[in-house]
Amino acid sequence: MTGTGAGCVNDYRSVFYYRMPKLNTIKSFDQNGYLAIAAETGIAGLVCFCWVLAHYGKQGFCSLKKRLNRQGSMAWRIALANMAGFSAACTANLFSSVHYNGVLIVFVLVLVLIERSERVFDEF
What we know:
Structural class: mainly alpha
Helix content: over 70%
Strand content: under 5%
Radius of gyration: 18 Å
Largest sheet: none
Shape: elongated
Order of helices and strands: HHHH
Oligomer: single chain
């Protein structure tokens, strides 16, 4: 299955739940963000998203590893916080999706913090 990229899977699942007699029944939600990405954008979209995760994960881990000998420093604490936020986002994507409006902004902010803090602390 390569996916169709035809739109939001969640919208199509909502049609079923809104046909039920009571509107306060279980609403649809993404049970796994990785599967939703594969269904909406296809295998190519999932591979691209996993590449983004691998790139920033490797960059954040290398930054943390490089600063391991100076654990009390500001750079080490920021690198640790970046990796904690990144790990939390990857884990949360198993149960929901990081592509919702409120969560996506924070996820992109974590990626930017990983990228920029590495550049800032390399100058010192």
